[in-house]
User: Fold ATP-dependent (S)-NAD(P)H-hydrate dehydratase from Culex quinquefasciatus.
Amino acid sequence: MLLLRCLSKRSIFPVSLGGSRSELCLGATGDLVDRCPELNHSRRFTMCENKSPLMERARNIVPHLETTRHKGQAGRIGVVGGSLEYTGAPYFAAISALKVGADLVHVFCPQAAAQVIKSYSAELIVHPLLDSNNAIIQIEPWLERLHVLVIGPGLGRDRVVLQTVAELIKICRQLQKPLIIDADGLYLITHDVSLVKDYYGLILTPNAIEFCRLFGNDRSRIWEMMEKLGRGVTVIEKGLNDRIYDSLTMEKFECPQGGSARRCGGQGDLLAGALATFYFWALESKQEISPATVACFAASYLTKTCNSHAFKLKGRSMTCTDMIEQIHVVFEECFEHKKE
Assistant:
């Protein structure tokens, strides 16, 4: 009801853009929306600076640090991923969720990846269950304790593991669990979109190649494909300008540019982990009409700014670990509540 009421109170300003008639309207969130009759959809663009309305909303969802809070209140995040070859990706996602401010992060991975991931950090709770014979029975009790689940970093394409993950997605849907799907998790759903159709509270995080697999190469059909995914699904397309597609309002948000020309591995994992924490905070704030969109914006902004900071220090030798080391500095600059 709140969403419909807010969206109905827009002011419309007809303008001429490139010889075609469009309408600029002030959206419920204070961003400018470009409505083009030719597309029959709305496209929202945010300003490339940290004073944009979405940036202010991102700051507002960050919980205050208070001594009255207990462990777990700032977020209990789950990461499902990892494989024999890829142990870094789930670690990057999990440690980024912690560094942004989640209290606890659980990693559910195959046996072969568990000891390696544990060796990276004592901060993570690692469950070597993903390829066990009774994986679902062992993992399901943990799901109710978690606020947000990330599926995909380093997952690989083992058939048995992917079948287990497909069952986990079904259980998460039943539990109405906020879910983020990244990397090889996206590979899974490109082969069976029904797993996530109409999954309210789902966020997909494709890079350029993964986006093409999901949506095809015809960008004029993006909204048609969004409608096939169903209402309540949000997509953040990673690129030079990250783009957020909100299926509830059928609007596109352009995130600010940033980062550098250094494209080291692991940046998408950092974003996925940060996104999980921001997403829980946005949901917990109870003040957001589009919590997924605000969380996506915050995670995008944080990741690109970490890249920029780390690149200034390390240049061509910068790695994702260098970016993670910048999370504290960037968070303090951009998101932390300032003392009076």
In short: The CA atoms of residues 74 and 101 lie 7 Å apart.
